[in-house]
């Protein structure tokens, strides 16, 4: 069972598509958000959750005070789950804006004019490193000064190729999962 861990929508159960997603575990989300929250990087922010799947990362941010969240996933089952999950969270967190974009992450980044303070990139483990590098490159112009990007991958995956404009500063391992964090210059 996947659920929101904490905040205004804490314990809300999230709908998970039957296949094609790998929701971030409660343990990893709790660790990530404890770290981000302690640094004041969630409340009032604009968040993008790329390769959203269930939307768990973006919706956890909404539950913990993010002002707006964009959930991006090209799979129709994932987009449907994100819409249902966003509705459930918005019932418990009035005023938070959640937008579901049923399209590839790279296409979304190339077409939007929005900017973000916090971005989660949690693709299926079989997504090629070249795609992650292209997404990171397209993301840089969409980031505010001091924005944080979290890339979640398998521990067997290499560190992402960070483009100019993103400086890596943290790597944490949680069993099979590794989360890298990078920041834009302030």
List keywords for this structure.
globular, seven-stranded mixed sheet, 28% strand, alpha/beta, two-stranded antiparallel sheet, 186 residues, DNA_methylase_N6_adenine_CS, methyltransferase, single chain, Rossmann fold, methyltransferase activity, nucleic acid binding, 5 helices
Task: Provide a brief overview of the structure.
Helix content is 30%, strand content 28%. The chain is of the alpha/beta class and 186 residues long. The protein has a single domain (2-183), classed as Rossmann fold, CATH 3.40.50.
Topology, number of strands:
9
Contiguous runs where pLDDT drops below 50 for at least 5 residues: none
Rg (C-alpha, Å):
15 Å
Give the strand order, joined by hyphens, for the main sheet. Answer: 5-4-3-6-7-9-8
Number of helices: 5
Q: H/E series, N to C? A: EEHEHEHEHEHEEE
Mean pLDDT: 95
Instruction: Note the main sheet.
Output: 7 strands, mixed
Q: How far apart, in Å, are the first and last alpha carbons?
A: 38 Å
Strand-pairing-aware structural class: alpha/beta
Envelope shape: globular
- The portion of residues forming beta strands comes to 25-35%
CATH superfamily: Vaccinia Virus protein VP39
Taken together, the total number of domains comes to: 1
Helix content: 25-40%
What's the quaternary structure here?
A: single chain
Name given to the CATH architecture: 3-Layer(aba) Sandwich
Keywords: Methyltransferase, Transferase
Organism: Curtobacterium oceanosedimentum
Protein name: Methyltransferase
GO molecular function: methyltransferase activity; nucleic acid binding
């Amino acid at each position: 069972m996947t659920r929101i861990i904490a905040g205004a929508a804490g314990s809300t159960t999230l709908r998970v598509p039957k296949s094609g997603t790998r929701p971030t575990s409660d343990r990893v989300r709790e660790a990530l958000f404890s770290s981000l929250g302690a640094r004041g990087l969630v409340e009032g922010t604009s968040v993008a959750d790329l390769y959203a799947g269930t939307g768990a990362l973006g919706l956890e941010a909404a539950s913990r005070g993010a002002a707006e969240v964009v959930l991006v996933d090209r799979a129709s089952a994932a987009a449907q789950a994100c819409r249902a999950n966003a509705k459930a969270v918005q019932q418990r967190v009035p005023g938070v804006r959640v937008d579901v974009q049923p399209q590839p992450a790279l296409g979304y980044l190339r077409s939007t004019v929005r900017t973000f303070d916090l971005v989660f990139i949690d693709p299926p483990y079989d997504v090629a490193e070249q795609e992650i590098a292209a997404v990171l490159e397209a993301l840089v112009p969409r980031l505010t000064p001091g924005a944080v990007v979290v890339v979640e991958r398998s521990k067997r995956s290499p560190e992402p190729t960070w483009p100019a404009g993103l400086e890596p500063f943290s790597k944490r391992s949680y069993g099979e999962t590794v989360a890298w964090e990078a920041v834009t210059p302030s």
